[in-house]
């Protein structure tokens, strides 16, 4: 028993029973480049139970101690294989009415058979577990992951047998010290809501591979990192369509190479992707990669050397049917609706959306802003909170490093300018640049509403400035908006990362009646009219593409939805403001 976390008696009396588990945090170091690797699914029906008092972790159910030393049965409070079942992946909130608003732990378990096919290493990949996951395989504690929205990998090579049991405790409790913290403006989904999969790999494998346009000079820049020091001296990179076969020298498990190449560049109108292959020893990795550049000069944004306007819209990761566990079809559907609105860009708010989003955006041609849930007033002064946020950012960047569609990493949303926040977010911005100098860093900042000026000390550390402003809605006096813009003289491009107003589907009235489509349209018209006058605005992403569930929105007209969508929650109905944006984007020129 002590192999895991102390004794049973110790554990039921531990004031903080989670602390011992935290000693084995699964971080971004576990990540593996795996997009086109063969995987076996562990999706399907898992047994589950609501474990409101966290008894599985306190009393170590995962140890499956059914008998004492003399073979007498222990009394048990659980029964893994006779519990009800739930679909993985899915959000538990939509599984049954009783789980809709549940916050706490749910224990998931299933058995699976494993046969070795000659591989040396085996990993289990969890696509996403909201918010925390504690994983046990064959009675052994494998580690815990925090962060609802990024994948993590567990090396199970040494614990797998022919017949296996996996237990995962998933906990979606909102916490003051979480990232995000306990207060957000979206629904608190929980569960194993993305794929769970097995990966079989050779002893030495390519753990991480990056390829992009060189930031300086011409050509491509590749990096390879193995999981260990490696025995061979070269990896081989092939891009047949460009006649490239290049050797990458590997030293101490790492290598990098500049490659002469003149690829067709990726754009939203021509999202050209190349098939890329990297080989090392017995391992090989495939990718589909597009090449493009993105930079800022003064208040302009240049994409492949040409000025670009980011004609966007914000989106949450949600569908009425699946909650956060959106399907590929649903993602394709909302990209299609955004393209019809003349968008070339989308802000994926406020946390990492599924990896599939950037993969599909690469294919269909949609520029992306991706974000970590450093949202509102998290505990900026707390070291652990910072580490959690930085790890989520690292996981986001590492998984998306080869996606042409993603041009902006956002380090947060609407965090009031204070000293500890500045230190926190500045460090995140610097971390992002260090990991990925090829993309822009941003954040959705607040404006100084008293002095009416764009002002935030974080601006010095980011490349492009997101501004959330709700003139015409939270600030009813519209005349302040033009004053704010006229008073400001930013040295960097400004994106209006949010603006908008509530509108209940089908509610009509006068332009002054709140929550009607007519009032929302009026707000959009006035906002658009103002943006057109301001040359330093280089992008807009109205809040928000479709209505989404939100426990804070209790007015009967809202009915627990944030109704600022341009579309209804089921995306079937277009509000008049959708067409106003469509027209604006058709006529807005760089
Ligand atoms: C904001 C937040 C967003 C909210 C939105 C609103 O400023 O960034 O998460 O949902 O306002 O509707 O109030």
Keywords:
alpha+beta, globular, disordered N terminus, binds (2S,3S,4S,5R)-3,4,5-trihydroxy-6-oxo-oxane-2-carboxylic acid, 590 residues
Radius of gyration: 25 Å
Number of helices: 10
Q: Uncertain spans, ≥5 residues at pLDDT below 50?
A: 1-5
Helix content: 10-25%
Q: What is the average of the pLDDT values?
A: 96
Give the distinct bound molecules.
(2S,3S,4S,5R)-3,4,5-trihydroxy-6-oxo-oxane-2-carboxylic acid
Beta-sheet strand percentage?
Answer: 25-35%
Taken from the alpha-carbon principal axes, the silhouette is globular
Main sheet overview: 9 strands, parallel
Structural class of the secondary elements?
alpha+beta
The total of beta strands comes to 33
> How are strands sequenced across the largest beta sheet?
23-31-30-29-28-27-26-25-24
End-to-end separation: 65 Å
Lay out the secondary structure.
Blueprint: H1 8-13, H2 19-22, E1 40-41, E2 44-51, H3 55-59, E3 85-88, E4 105-113, E5 121-126, E6 129-130, E7 132-137, E8 140-146, E9 152-155, E10 163-171, E11 191-192, E12 196-201, E13 206-213, E14 220-226, E15 234-239, E16 244-249, E17 254-259, E18 274-280, E19 283-289, E20 294-297, E21 300-303, E22 306-307, E23 310-311, E24 314-315, H4 328-340, E25 345-348, H5 355-364, E26 367-371, H6 383-400, E27 406-413, H7 419-435, E28 440-445, E29 465-468, H8 479-487, E30 494-498, H9 517-531, E31 537-540, E32 548-549, E33 561-562, H10 576-587
Helix pairs in contact: 4-5, 6-7, 9-10
Describe the structure.
By secondary structure, the chain is of the alpha+beta class. Helix content is 18%, strand content 28%. The strands form eight sheets. The protein has a nine-stranded parallel sheet with strand order 23-31-30-29-28-27-26-25-24. Helix 4 (328-340) packs across helix 5 (355-364) and helix 6 packs parallel to helix 7. The chain is globular and about 80 Å long. Residues 1-5 have low confidence and may be disordered. (2S,3S,4S,5R)-3,4,5-trihydroxy-6-oxo-oxane-2-carboxylic acid binds at residues 185, 350, 413-414, 468, 498, 543, 562, 564.
């Amino acid at each position: 028993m002590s192999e895991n976390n102390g004794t049973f008696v110790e554990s039921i009396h531990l004031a903080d029973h989670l602390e011992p588990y935290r000693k084995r945090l699964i971080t971004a170091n576990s990540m593996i480049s795996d997009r086109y690797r063969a995987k076996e699914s562990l999706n399907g029906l898992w047994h589950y139970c609501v474990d409101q008092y966290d008894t599985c972790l306190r009393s170590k159910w995962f140890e499956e101690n059914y008998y004492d030393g003399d073979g007498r049965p222990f009394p048990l409070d659980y029964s893994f294989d006779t519990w009800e079942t739930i679909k993985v992946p899915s959000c538990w909130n939509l599984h049954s009415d009783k789980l809709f608003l549940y916050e706490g732990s749910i224990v998931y378990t299933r058995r699976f058979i494993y046969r070795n096919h000659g591989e040396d290493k085996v990993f289990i990949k969890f696509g996403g577990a909201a918010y925390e996951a504690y994983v046990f395989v064959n009675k052994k504690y494998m580690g815990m992951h925090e962060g609802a929205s990024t994948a993590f990998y567990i090396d199970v090579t040494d614990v797998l047998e022919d017949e296996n049991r996996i237990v995962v405790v998933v906990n979606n409790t909102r916490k003051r010290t979480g990232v995000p913290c306990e207060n957000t403006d979206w629904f608190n989904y929980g569960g194993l809501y993305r794929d769970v999969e097995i990966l079989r790999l050779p002893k030495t494998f390519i753990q991480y591979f990056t390829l992009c346009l060189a930031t300086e000079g011409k050509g491509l820049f590749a990096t390879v990192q193995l999981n260990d020091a490696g025995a061979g001296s070269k990896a081989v990179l092939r891009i047949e369509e460009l006649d490239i076969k290049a050797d990458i020298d590997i030293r101490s498990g790492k290598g990098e190479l500049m490659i002469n190449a003149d690829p067709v560049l990726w754009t939203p109108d021509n999202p050209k992707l190349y098939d890329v292959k990297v080989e090392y020893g017995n391992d090989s990795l495939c990718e589909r990669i597009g090449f493009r550049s993105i930079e800022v000069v003064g208040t302009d944004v240049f994409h492949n050397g040409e000025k670009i306007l980011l004609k966007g819209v914000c989106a949450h990761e949600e569908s009425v049917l699946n909650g956060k566990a959106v399907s590929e079809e649903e993602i394709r559907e909302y990209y299609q609706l955004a393209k019809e609105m003349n968008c070339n860009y989308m802000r994926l708010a406020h946390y990492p959306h599924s990896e599939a989003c950037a993969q599909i955006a690469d294919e269909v041609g949609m520029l992306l802003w991706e974000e970590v849930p450093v949202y509102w007033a998290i505990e900026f002064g707390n070291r652990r909170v910072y580490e959690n946020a930085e790890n989520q950012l690292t996981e986001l960047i590492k998984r998306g490093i080869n996606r042409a569609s993603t041009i902006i990493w956002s380090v947060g949303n609407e965090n009031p300018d204070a000293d500890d926040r500045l230190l926190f977010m500045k460090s995140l911005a610097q971390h992002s640049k260090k990991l990925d100098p090829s993309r822009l860093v941003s954040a959705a900042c607040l404006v100084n509403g008293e002095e009416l000026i764009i002002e935030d000390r974080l601006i010095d550390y980011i490349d492009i400035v997101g501004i959330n402003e709700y003139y015409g809605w939270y600030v009813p006096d519209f005349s302040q908006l033009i004053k704010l813009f006229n008073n400001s003289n930013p040295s960097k491009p400004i994106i209006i990362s949010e603006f908008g107003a509530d509108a209940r589907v089908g509610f009509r009235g006068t332009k002054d009646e709140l929550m009607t489509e007519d009032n929302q349209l009026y707000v959009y018209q006035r906002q658009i009219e103002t943006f057109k006058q301001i040359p330093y605005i280089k992008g807009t992403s109205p809040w928000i593409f479709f209505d989404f569930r939100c426990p804070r929105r209790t007015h009967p007209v809202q009915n627990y939805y944030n109704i600022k969508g341009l579309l209804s929650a089921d995306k079937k109905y277009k509000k008049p403001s959708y067409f106003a944006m469509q027209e604006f984007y058709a006529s807005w020129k760089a």
